[in-house]
Automatic annotation (TrEMBL):
One of its GO terms (molecular function) is nucleic acid binding. It comes from Dioscorea cayennensis subsp. rotundata. It holds the Pfam family MT-A70. This is Methyltransferase-like protein 2 isoform X1. Belongs to the MT-A70-like family.
Length: 419
């Protein structure tokens, strides 16, 4: 048994995914997973885990979920008798999910080799260039009148110049292209460097991105249905009071999501649709009753993202009514007539340390076995995190999706007339 655990940790060191035998639980280190997308560069862990970087780990005391979610904050917990009908539905949903979350956390805490390794995930790599103090706000830049004039400079490999060893070009040439409302491609299998407003970005091989608002979303529809997408990941900027108060990013009214052309984006042989959703019962009802039926998504399954600290404890008490230490993602199929509806497991739990602004963990490798249609699969990520300054382009994750990946700028808003 000890050998199996040790072997799993060795696999995690290279893949960034730790699988717990006999369960629907995995631990993910986004830094390692994303770094595997690059041929010459790596994600800076200090930048990704900036919310925890510099905070010393106190070590895991082995407490269970029940003890870590003690009654220290009784006054912050809601009395069931004071809940309205929607809040009662949300609490019932939480109670149904709780056994899976408790079991997942207990499995996580039994992996002592992984727990001892967690603090090292946050160690800074001295070989990495310094990250810029300020990040560009692409949402604000895209709304300026100068937006059509902004260009990004790509260092493209020169043609007919063989690379030493055949893996990396020896010479490159620069080409400036519009950064907004323009499909930007890296069709090579190696990293492509780019400069924008004196900041450097790295695009992984076989990657594309498209920064625009929803008025241009139909530009992403493939010309032929047999060239559609097999995996569609959607992380909407849901209306959220906390996000609004902190001005993290603009939010989008729920009804505008009904206009996303998900059916037209899906491959004719089937697509797996993955939707990140908050714990608000109003949103859940909207998705189940209106959004998924409008998109034609069926055979729904639910996954959970359980957030932990570098010391292995939960980022918050499990049973607090607000600010639960987990988020949900709903998965379903479009056009997948020949796909077994039991293919997607139920109540799978993804455990990870959240990055800045709770960046979602990369999903490609975890979901590849459930994706219908031809292989290699094609992936599109709507409302992906915008690019940030430094030596990364956050969220780029080609992995098993070797053809392309688009980015639709997160947080863009439109008016009634635009819809």
């Amino acid at each position: 048994m000890e050998y199996d655990v040790h072997d799993e940790l060795l696999s995690f060191m290279s893949s960034g995914i730790y699988r717990f035998s006999g369960s629907n639980v995995v631990f993910v280190d986004p830094v390692r997973v994303l770094s595997n997308s690059y041929s010459r560069f790596r994600i800076n862990s200090a930048g990704y885990y900036s919310r925890f970087f510099g905070v010393p780990s106190k070590g895991n005391d082995g407490n269970s979920v029940d003890s870590s979610s003690s009654m220290k904050n009784k006054k912050r917990k809601r009395n069931s008798q004071s809940l309205n009908e929607r809040e009662k539905s949300a609490e019932n949903r939480h109670q149904n999910a709780r056994p899976f979350l408790v079991s997942a956390y207990e499995s996580f805490q039994r992996a002592t080799d992984l727990l001892h390794f967690l603090p090292s995930l946050l160690k800074e790599d001295d070989s990495m260039p310094d990250k810029c103090d300020t990040e560009l706000n692409f949402i604000e830049l895209g709304s300026l009148w100068q937006a059509p004039l902004y260009e990004i400079s790509l260092s493209l490999p020169m043609e007919n110049i063989p690379a030493e060893g055949g893996s990396q070009p020896s010479c490159c040439e620069g080409r400036a292209v519009p950064v907004f409302n323009n499909l930007i491609r890296n069709q090579s299998s190696y990293d492509l460097e780019a400069d924008f407003l004196n900041r450097q970005y790295i695009l992984p091989g076989k990657c594309r991105f498209f920064m625009s608002d929803l008025r241009r979303v139909h530009d992403l529809i493939p010309a032929q249905p047999d060239y559609g997408y097999n995996l569609i990941i959607i992380d909407p900027p849901w209306e959220n009071g906390s996000v609004y108060q902190k001005a993290v990013y603009p939010t989008l009214p729920n009804r505008y999501l009904l206009y996303l052309p998900i059916k037209q984006l899906a491959h004719i042989d089937g697509a797996l649709v993955v939707l990140w959703i908050t714990n608000r019962e109003k949103l859940r009802a909207f998705v189940e009753d209106e959004l998924f039926p409008a998109w034609g998504v069926a055979d729904i399954s639910e996954f959970f993202w359980l957030k932990v600290k570098p010391d292995g404890s939960l980022i918050g008490e499990l049973d607090l009514f607000h600010h639960r230490p987990y988020e949900c993602l709903l998965l379903g199929y479009i056009n997948a007539k020949n796909v077994n509806s039991e293919k997607i497991p139920k109540n799978k739990v993804i455990v990870s340390i959240p990055g800045s602004h709770s960046r979602k963990p990369p999903l490609g490798r975890l979901l590849s076995e459930y994706v219908p249609g031809p292989k290699p699969a094609r992936c599109i990520d709507l409302f992906a995190r915008e690019l940030v300054a430094g030596w990364t382009s956050w969220g780029n994750e080609p992995l098993h999706f070797q053809d392309s990946k688009y980015f639709l700028q997160r947080g863009s808003t439109i008016s009634d007339t635009d819809a």
